[in-house]
């Protein structure tokens, strides 16, 4: 791949072809080539045997504190302390492309659920807000397991940075895994994007705290030794108090210890006596979200 090129996301359609998935890293970027029996992606749209072939360029990559799916907030803005950035890729990382964007407090990110590309979509899903027990249509949900794995998040834009020929968007309140491919960036326009009195189905309001969050002495000492310790403590509290666990592992066992990959550590915690207890900030463990 030439330096001036961006990675492409290619969904190829072939009659009778089963779903598969192929990923390969290209330097600091990623080329994702999922195979579905429905759609394909590209920079042009053409009709092929009654179907469309569409190809998209990846215009940026998300850098996030969340290093794996487990623990990522289920919606943007639920953990406002979580900060990250969007690194725009050539040829889109030019100052002209973001001119005027600094005048907006929030932006929309259109992205690909790249960690779910190998999962088969289903017409119904079980949203976490309904306890994982009730099914709704996939188009009545924000499930990542969709016919086309495209997501949309609104995040706070803290700063537009242009240094050394690179353009970076510093953001907060994100709900994206590190390395997520970005397809587009649009400004959030309050008068049209915010609709007072809109109905929101089963998600009437933001989820409230489900747990009190306590920190062990070891965890408090580890946080105190970090320059970002105070902000990180508040981020961890906001992350755990709404219970990031999937419904299928909420079995009530008090001694089960969970691990969430954040920044450069594994956050180890458990549920004890109706509260979330942070045990330690451990060295990263790549094996499982459950210790």
Give a nutshell description of this structure:
This protein is mainly beta. The chain has helices at 190-193, 217-224, 229-241, and strands at residues 8-9, 20-26, 29-35, 46-48, 51-53, 56-57, 60-63, 83-88, 106-112, 124-125, 136-137, 150-163, 166-172, 181-187, 212-215, 257-262, 265-272, 275-282.
Spell out the blueprint of helices and strands.
Blueprint: E1 8-9, E2 20-26, E3 29-35, E4 46-48, E5 51-53, E6 56-57, E7 60-63, E8 83-88, E9 106-112, E10 124-125, E11 136-137, E12 150-163, E13 166-172, E14 181-187, H1 190-193, E15 212-215, H2 217-224, H3 229-241, E16 257-262, E17 265-272, E18 275-282
Parallel strand pairs: 15-18
Antiparallel strand pairs: 1-6, 2-3, 4-5, 7-8, 7-14, 8-13, 9-12, 9-14, 10-11, 12-13, 16-17, 17-18
Helix pairs in contact: 2-3
The span between the termini is: 40 Å
Count of structural domains: 3
* Range of strand content: 25-35%
CATH superfamily grouping of the largest domain: YaeB-like
Report the strand count.
Answer: 18
Under the CATH scheme, the architecture of the largest domain is Beta Barrel
What CATH calls the topology of the largest domain is: Elongation Factor Tu (Ef-tu), domain 3
Quick one: CATH class of the largest domain? Mainly Beta
- From N to C, what is the helix and strand string? EEEEEEEEEEEEEEHEHHEEE
| Low-pLDDT runs | 10-48
Largest sheet properties = 6 strands, antiparallel, barrel
Shape: globular
Specify the helix fraction band. under 10%
Give the helix/strand class: mainly beta
- What is the spatial order of strands in the main beta sheet? 7-8-13-12-9-14
């Amino acid at each position: 791949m030439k330096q001036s090129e961006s990675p492409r996301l290619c969904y190829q359609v072939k009659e009778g072809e089963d779903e598969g998935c192929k990923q390969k890293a290209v330097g600091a970027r990623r080329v994702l080539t999922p195979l579905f029996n429905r759609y394909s992606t590209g920079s042009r749209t053409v009709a092929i045997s009654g179907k469309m072939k569409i190809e998209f360029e990846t215009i940026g990559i998300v850098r996030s504190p969340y290093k794996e799916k487990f623990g990522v907030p289920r919606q943007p803005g639920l953990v406002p302390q979580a900060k990250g950035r969007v690194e725009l890729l050539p040829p889109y990382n030019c100052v002209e492309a973001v001119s005027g964007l600094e005048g907006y407090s929030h932006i929309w990110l259109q992205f690909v659920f790249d960690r779910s590309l190998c999962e088969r979509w289903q017409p119904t899903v079980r949203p976490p807000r309904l306890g994982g027990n009730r099914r709704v249509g996939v188009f009545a949900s924000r499930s990542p397991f969709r016919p086309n794995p495209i997501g949309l998040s609104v995040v706070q834009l803290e700063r537009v940075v242009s240094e050394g020929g690179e353009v970076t968007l510093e953001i907060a309140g994100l709900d994206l895994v590190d390395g997520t491919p970005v397809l587009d960036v649009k400004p959030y326009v309050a008068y049209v994007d915010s609709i007072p009195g809109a109905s929101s189905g089963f998600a009437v309001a933001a989820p409230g705290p489900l747990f009190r969050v306590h920190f062990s002495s070891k965890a408090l000492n580890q946080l105190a030794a970090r320059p970002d310790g105070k902000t990180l403590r508040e981020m961890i509290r906001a992350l755990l108090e709404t219970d990031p666990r999937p419904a299928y592992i909420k079995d009530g066992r008090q001694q089960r210890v969970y691990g969430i990959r954040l920044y450069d550590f594994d956050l180890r915690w458990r549920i004890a006596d109706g509260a979330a207890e942070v045990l330690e900030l451990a060295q990263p463990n790549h094996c499982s979200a459950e210790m």
